Amino acid sequence: MKFVEFTGLVGSGKSTLAAEASKILRDMGWQPLSPAEATRRGMDRSLLGRLCRALLPAAAYEQIQQVLYAHVVGRFYQALFALENPGLVWHIYTSSEYRRSLPAWHQKTLLRLFFDVAGRRQFLSSRLKPGEVVIFEEGLGHRAINLFAWHVRRVDTRRVAEYFRRLPDLGIVVLVQTPGIVCAQRAEARGLPIRLRDKSPKVFERFMANSADILAVASRELSGSRQLLIQVDNQGSLEDAAQKLRVRLDEVSKLDPSETRSIVPAA
Length: 267
Prior knowledge:
Blueprint: E1 3-8, H1 14-27, E2 31-33, H2 35-45, H3 47-55, H4 58-84, H5 86-93, H6 104-124, E3 132-136, H7 143-148, H8 157-166, E4 172-177, H9 180-190, H10 194-197, H11 201-223, E5 228-233, H12 238-252
Parallel strand pairs: 1-3, 1-4, 2-3, 4-5
């Protein structure tokens, strides 16, 4: 097991359950890492990182490391991901009509977020030590919502299904299942994400409806593929949801922590 990623509606509790997953995996003997921490460790272990560490003072190295990853290493691995997954990348760019209602800067941000996750996974896949696992609060599976849910009309589920079929091995995907009405109440109580704050109620409702359709496709496509899917009901208490997550992670992670690849088939 190298990666665990979450997906769900806005307000479903992805971030909260991702934090719980970190505690659970640590209890099980794994070493959970955030993408940022894993990237720092990966840079330390790379030839470029070791060279910079040897030549630079510690304080300067920390700053240079971030710049090197953001502008050199990260972009290289994003390009490498695109070369290894040309069909997926082409599908994303030819589905631009789903983002056409957004300002140009917002469209660019959505693509940047996709390639940031893709590049980090590509970079980290060969740099994790035995027992380390990276937890993405929003992984490549969740990017389907960012890329397709903004359509002013009902999303074409066939296009979404094609996206999921073209994804590489994701590791473990945790789909947080929470009713839309509960998600909307939670989101309004805590404050909407920045990308939704300036949107009208009609746009928000369409975004949530499209997101629900996308998650239904994700559940169907991931359940019937090589991917390892965990579905967690989170409409009740955090304790109940965390216990359900613990049971499912225990079922799919009965491997020695020295191993980094899950051999449990998708269920």
